[in-house]
Amino acid sequence: MLNPDLVGRTVTGTTSTTVTQESIEAFARALGEKNTEVAPPTFAITISLDQSQSLLQSSGLDWSRVVHGDQRFEIHRPIIAGDQVRCDTTIESARVVAGNEIVTVRGDIFAGNECLVSTWSTLVFRG
Amino acid sequence: MSTFEVGQELTPQTFIISRAKLVDYANASGDQNPIHQNEEFARAVGLENVIAHGMYTMGLAGQYVSAIAGSSARVKELSARFTKPVVVPAQTDVELIVSATVTEVNSDSARLEITATCNGVKVLGMAKALISL
Hints:
CATH superfamily of chain B: Hotdog Thioesterase
Distance between the termini of chain B: 6 Å
Number of strands of chain A: 6
Oligomer: heterodimer
Number of strands of chain B: 6
Number of helices of chain B: 3
CATH topology of chain A: Thiol Ester Dehydrase, Chain A
Order of helices and strands of chain A: EEHHEEEE
Largest interface: A-B, 29 and 31 residues
Shape of chain A: globular
Helix content of chain B: 10-25%
CATH class of chain A: Alpha Beta
CATH architecture of chain A: Roll
Strand content of chain A: 35-45%
Distance between the termini of chain A: 10 Å
Structural class of chain B: alpha+beta
Structural class of chain A: alpha+beta
């Protein structure tokens, strides 16, 4: 079970990566989107989920038992090629329901001081 | 864009999901979980077959919303619950039908309630979007 002390803790993303036009185009192509001036609305998941995974795995949760419960995006400004992004990750809540551990993780994707996208993933770790 | 009215039902769009498209999405997104590509693995963990990434289904719903809004740049919020898996057997084109109803219209934005079904079963729940006009 997740240590309750971790809930509410924010882990600041220390590495920043540059979003490439190629990565936006590959993602858009997979969804059938032809306009690649900005990233598709769900592109942020490619940045946030890795961070959530490493945080939750290092907190002892078994990623092989995870099911994606729900997902939400708030897009303040669309991601574009050339953005140097980092992701701050916060475990917002964790509870056990019927033996499953349900964790909500928030990712805030920044370029410099500007928050581009906030995204929430609810992940269900099957018990 | 300003012609949206509350209660308006928007034209549905059908997306075709296949094993090849799941591989494309896995490569583009970095989510290489074998339950989305490997039938043997999927069955071994208790699934009836390979299932689509929830985020692929949501991505297609997002693509539908982008088209309605006129651009991905106009999509301000998108949310969905993954209620049922989209099962993708080998050599099969699975149809995902996405539609939406306008639930709120403001001077510069509109809210949509999205429906996504596969073989008549809703695969996304509480699916909503906010678009700017």
